[in-house]
C-alpha cells in the first residue's frame, strides 16, 4: 500500500537525478558542494536584509542545527535514541548563563569563553555518563535511560532558581564580547552563531571521515563486526554520547545569551526533546546540509505560519512520522541515494556492466541486491562486456 | 588431488602482474606472520545456554600458516565454538590460547589487536557505504590518532590514512573489487558483499582469519570461486585460516586438516582423509556408516 502511494515520488527520482548530474561534473563528483556553498552564501548575505525578529529566528535555527548535529552522532552513528536532547541543551544554557551573567552570586561574572566551556563540558559529561550502561544495554533501555536523565534534569537543575536565574528575578545575560568586538546586536550575534555552526559542521564532517567516525558507523551497522576488527562498541558509544552531548552543549552555550535573559524551562522539557529528535530522523544523518535545512525549517516554519497557530510540537510529531515513512536514510539520505546512483551508473558502465536503473525494488528477495550475470559460473562480479547488472532503487536489507 | 580422487577446484593459481603488486602492498601492511607452532588452541571447551549444552569438551588447534576446516551438521556447535574462539562468548570451562597468550577472558576487540579477525555467516557490512568505506572501516587499529588529532588531520594521522587508502585499493584489487570502490555495497551482488567483508578483515592486519561459512547463500560455483580466492590469499600471505563451511566436499578436498564436531563434541580431527573415513563423521552426516 505504502509502496503504491510512494510510486509517483519514485518516478521523480530519475529526472531529478538527471538534472543534478551536471552539478556533479562541475564539482569533481560531489554535487552537494554547490548546495553547501549556496547555503553558506545565503546565510551570510540574506540576514542583513531581514528584520531583526527574523535574524533572531534564523540564529535560533542555527543553534538548533548544532543541537541536531549532536543528536545525529548519537542517533545516526551509533544507533541509540537520545531523549535527553532538550535537557542537555538546557543544562548547558543554565550552567553557562550562571557563570557568565553578572550579578547575584560571587560565582557569576566569568568571561564568556570559560563559562561556555563549563556549560559544554557539563553537557558532554552528563551525556557520556548516561552512556556507561550501554555496555550491557541497548535500544529501548538506553531510550528510557536518557528519558530518565531528561526528567531528572527537569526536577533538579531546572528547579533551582539560583542557577537558572528565573522565577520572576530580573536577570540579564549579555551578548558576549571577544577581543574588543561586541556581538551585542542581533546581526553580529547571528554571524557569531553562524561561525559556530560552520565550525561544528566541519568538525562533524572531519570526525565522520576519521577512524573514529568509521568505528561508530560500524557499531551501528553491527556491533559484532566492529568488535571483530578491534573496535570496542562500549567505548565508542560513550564517546559518541559525550561528543554529541558536547555539541548540544555548544548550542546551549550560545543559546544562553541569545535572549539576553535566562530562557524559560519550558524550552527544555521532554516534549522539546522529541521535537529535536525529529530533526535527524527527518533529515537523516548522512548529510549535514539536510540536517541544517530541516533544523532551520523547524525553527522558521512555525513562526512563518504563526497566523495558523502551528505548534512546533505538531511539526515535530509530523516530522517523526514522516521520517519513519521516508526510511532510515531520511530525506537527505534519499537525495544522496539519487546522486550516488548516477555515479554508480557511470562507474558500472565504465567497467562494461550494463545497468538497468528501472529495476523495481523487491524487498522480499533478501540476499542478492544486485545480480551480476556472468558466463563464468557466477564468479567474480567484475564482468566482461555484455554482462548485466541490475541496480535496485534502494539497497534492500538482508533478512535476519 | 582431492580426498575423493578428483582434482580439487581450489588450486592456487597465478596472480596477474597487477595482483602481484597488490599482494606485495598487502603483505607489507600485514604483521609478520607466524611461521611455526600453533596460533590458536582451544582446550576442553564447555558452554551451556540454559538447558542446552552447546559444547561438551570441544578442543581444536590451528597450526601456523595452515588452512583448517571445521565441519559438523546443523546445531552441532560450530558457531558457538567460533564465538568462544573469537571472544563473543565466554566458555563455562576450558581455555583459549591465541599466539601463545591465554585469551579466554579477553574481549573480541582485544583478540583483534593480537591479529585475530573474523567474518560472519550473514553479511555484516554497511550496505549504504561504498566498497572503499567498508574496507577502510577494517583499518581501525592501523590508523593512529585520538579524536582531536583525527579531526585536525595531524601529519601522522594523514600518513596512516593515506597508507590505509593504498592498502584498501590493493585489497580491492585482490578481492576483484577494484573498479567498484566508489559503488555502494548494497548495489552489488551477494558474492561481492562477501568479498568486501573478507577484505575488511584483511584490513585489520590479521595473522589468523576465522571465516564462518563465507559461501553461505551461494551456489557451488560461486562458493568454489570464493574459496579459491581465500586459499590463494592464505597461501601467498602466509595467514592461518580456520574455516567453517557447509560444502563439506570442498573442505575435505582443500583444507590441510579438518575437525568435525557433532553435539558439541569433536568426533574426528586430522587430515581430510582421516576425517572423511571416520565412522563417527559418516554417522553424524548420514545417520549410518557410508558402507552400511
Which spans of chain B of ≥5 residues are poorly predicted at pLDDT below 50? 1-12
Largest interface: A-B, 55 and 64 residues
Q: What is the CA-based Rg of chain A, rounded?
A: 23 Å
Largest sheet of chain B: 6 strands, mixed
Morphology call of chain B: globular
Q: Quaternary status of these chains?
A: heterodimer
Instruction: Count the DSSP helices of chain A.
Output: 15
- Which range does the strand content of chain A fall in? under 5%
The largest sheet of chain A, given as strand count, sense and whether it forms a barrel, is: 3 strands, mixed
- Along the chain, the helix and strand elements of chain B come as HEEEHEEHEHHHHEHEHEEHH
What strand order characterises the main sheet of chain B? 6-7-8-3-9-10
Mean pLDDT of chain B: 88
Which sequence of SSEs, written as H and E, runs from N to C of chain A?
HHHHHHHEEHHHHHHHHEEE
Would you kindly provide a written description of the structure presented here, covering whatever features stand out?
The complex is a heterodimer of chains A (400) and B (292). Chain A is mostly helical and 400 residues long. Helices cover 63% and strands 3% of the residues of chain A. Chain A has 15 helices and five strands. Chain A has helices at 2-26, 32-45, 52-77, 85-100, 112-131, 140-155, 161-164, 186-208, 211-221, 223-228, 233-255, 270-283, 288-304, 312-326, 330-350; strands spanning 177-178, 181-182, 354-356, 372-373, 388-390. Chain A has a three-stranded mixed beta sheet. Chain A is globular. Residues 356-400 of chain A have low confidence and may be disordered. With 292 residues, chain B is of the alpha/beta class. Chain B has helices at 17-29, 78-86, 108-114, 131-137, 147-151, 155-174, 190-203, 220-237, 248-254, 272-277, 279-286; strands at residues 38-49, 52-63, 67-71, 93-98, 101-102, 116-119, 208-212, 240-244, 257-262, 265-270. In chain B, the strands form two sheets. A six-stranded mixed beta sheet of chain B has the order 6-7-8-3-9-10, with helices on both faces. A four-stranded antiparallel beta sheet of chain B has the order 2-1-4-5, covered by helices on one side. In chain B, α4 (131-137) crosses α6 (155-174), α4 runs parallel beside α7 and α6 (155-174) packs across α7 (190-203). The longest helix of chain B has 20 residues, at 155-174. Chain B is globular and about 60 Å long. Mean pLDDT of chain B is 88; it is low at 1-12. At the A-B interface, α8, α9, α10 and α15 of A face α3, β6, α4, α5 and α7 of B.
Amino acid at each position: 500500500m505504502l509502496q503504491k502511494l510512494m510510486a509517483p515520488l519514485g518516478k521523480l527520482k530519475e529526472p531529478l537525478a538527471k538534472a543534478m548530474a551536471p552539478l556533479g561534473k562541475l564539482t569533481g563528483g560531489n554535487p552537494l558542494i554547490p548546495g553547501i556553498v549556496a547555503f553558506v552564501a545565503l546565510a551570510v548575505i540574506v540576514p542583513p536584509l531581514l528584520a531583526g525578529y527574523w535574524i533572531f529566528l534564523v540564529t535560533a535555527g542555527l543553534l538548533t542545527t548544532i543541537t541536531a548535529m549532536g543528536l545525529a552522532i548519537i542517533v545516526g552513528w551509533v544507533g541509540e535514541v537520545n531523549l535527553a536532547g532538550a535537557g542537555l541543551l538546557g543544562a548547558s544554557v543554565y550552567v553557562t548563563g550562571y557563570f557568565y551573567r553578572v550579578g547575584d552570586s560571587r560565582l557569576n561574572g566569568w568571561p564568556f569563553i570559560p563559562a561556555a566551556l563549563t556549560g559544554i563540558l557539563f553537557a558532554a559529561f552528563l551525556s557520556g555518563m548516561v552512556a556507561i550502561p550501554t555496555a550491557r544495554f541497548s535500544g529501548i533501555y538506553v531510550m528510557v535511560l536518557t528519558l530518565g536523565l531528561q526528567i531528572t534534569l527537569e526536577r533538579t537543575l531546572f528547579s533551582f532558581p539560583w542557577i537558572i536565574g528565573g522565577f520572576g528575578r530580573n536577570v540579564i545575560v549579555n551578548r558576549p564580547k571577544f577581543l574588543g568586538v561586541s556581538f551585542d546586536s542581533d546581526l553580529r550575534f547571528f554571524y557569531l552563531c553562524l561561525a559556530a555552526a560552520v565550525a561544528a559542521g566541519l568538525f562533524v564532517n572531519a570526525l565522520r571521515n576519521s577512524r573514529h567516525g568509521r568505528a561508530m558507523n560500524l557499531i551501528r551497522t553491527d556491533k559484532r563486526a566492529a568488535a571483530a576488527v578491534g573496535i570496542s562498541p562500549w567505548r565508542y558509544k560513550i564517546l559518541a554520547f559525550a561528543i554529541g552531548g558536547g555539541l548540544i552543549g555548544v548550542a546551549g552555550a550560545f543559546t544562553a545569551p541569545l535572549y539576553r535573559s535566562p530562557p524559560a524551562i519550558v524550552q527544555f522539557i521532554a516534549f522539546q526533546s522529541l521535537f529535536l529528535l525529529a530533526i535527524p530522523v527527518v533529515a537523516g544523518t548522512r548529510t549535514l546540509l539536510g540536517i541544517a535545512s530541516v533544523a532551520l525549517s523547524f525553527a522558521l516554519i512555525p513562526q512563518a505560519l504563526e497566523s495558523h497557530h502551528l505548534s512546533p510540537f505538531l511539526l515535530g510529531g509530523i516530522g517523526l512520522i514522516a521520517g519513519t515513512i521516508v526510511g532510515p536514510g531520511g530525506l537527505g539520505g534519499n537525495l544522496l541515494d539519487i546522486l550516488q546512483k548516477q555515479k554508480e551508473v557511470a562507474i558500472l558502465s565504465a567497467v562494461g556492466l550494463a545497468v538497468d536503473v528501472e529495476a523495481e525494488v523487491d524487498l522480499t528477495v533478501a540476499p542478492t541486491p544486485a545480480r551480476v550475470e556472468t558466463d563464468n559460473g557466477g564468479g567474480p562480479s567484475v564482468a566482461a562486456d555484455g554482462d548485466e547488472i541490475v541496480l535496485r532503487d534502494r539497497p534492500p536489507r538482508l533478512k535476519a | 588431488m582431492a580426498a575423493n580422487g578428483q582434482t580439487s577446484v581450489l588450486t592456487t593459481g597465478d596472480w596477474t602482474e597487477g595482483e602481484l603488486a597488490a599482494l606485495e602492498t598487502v603483505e607489507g601492511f600485514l604483521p609478520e606472520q607466524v611461521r611455526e607452532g600453533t596460533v590458536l588452541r582451544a582446550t576442553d571447551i564447555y558452554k551451556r545456554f540454559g538447558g542446552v549444552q552447546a559444547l561438551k569438551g570441544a578442543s581444536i588447534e590451528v597450526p601456523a600458516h595452515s588452512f583448517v576446516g571445521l565441519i559438523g551438521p546443523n546445531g552441532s556447535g560450530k558457531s558457538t565454538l567460533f564465538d568462544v574462539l573469537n571472544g563473543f562468548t565466554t566458555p563455562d570451562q576450558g581455555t583459549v590460547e591465541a599466539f601463545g597468550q591465554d585469551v579466554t577472558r579477553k574481549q573480541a576487540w582485544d583478540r583483534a589487536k593480537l591479529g585475530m579477525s573474523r567474518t560472519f555467516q550473514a553479511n555484516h557490512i554497511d550496505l549504504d557505504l561504498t566498497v572503499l568505506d567498508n574496507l577502510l572501516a577494517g583499518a581501525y587499529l592501523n590508523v593512529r590518532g585520538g579524536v582531536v588529532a583525527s579531526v585536525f588531520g595531524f601529519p601522522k594521522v594523514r600518513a596512516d590514512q593515506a597508507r590505509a587508502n593504498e592498502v584498501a585499493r590493493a585489497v580491492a584489487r585482490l578481492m576483484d573489487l577494484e573498479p567498484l570502490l566508489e559503488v555502494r555495497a548494497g548495489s552489488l551482488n551477494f558474492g561481492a558483499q562477501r568479498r568486501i567483508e573478507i577484505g575488511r578483515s584483511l584490513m585489520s592486519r590479521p595473522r589468523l582469519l576465522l571465516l564462518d561459512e563465507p559461501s553461505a547463500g551461494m551456489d557451488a560455483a560461486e562458493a568454489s570461486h570464493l574459496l579459491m580466492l581465500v586459499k590463494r590469499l592464505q597461501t601467498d600471505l602466509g595467514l592461518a585460516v580456520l574455516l567453517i563451511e557447509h560444502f563439506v566436499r570442498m573442505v575435505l578436498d582443500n583444507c590441510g586438516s579438518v575437525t568435525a564436531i557433532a553435539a558439541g563434541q569433536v568426533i574426528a580431527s586430522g587430515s581430510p582423509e582421516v576425517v572423511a573415513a571416520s565412522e563417527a563423521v559418516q554417522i553424524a552426516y548420514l545417520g549410518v556408516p557410508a558402507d552400511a
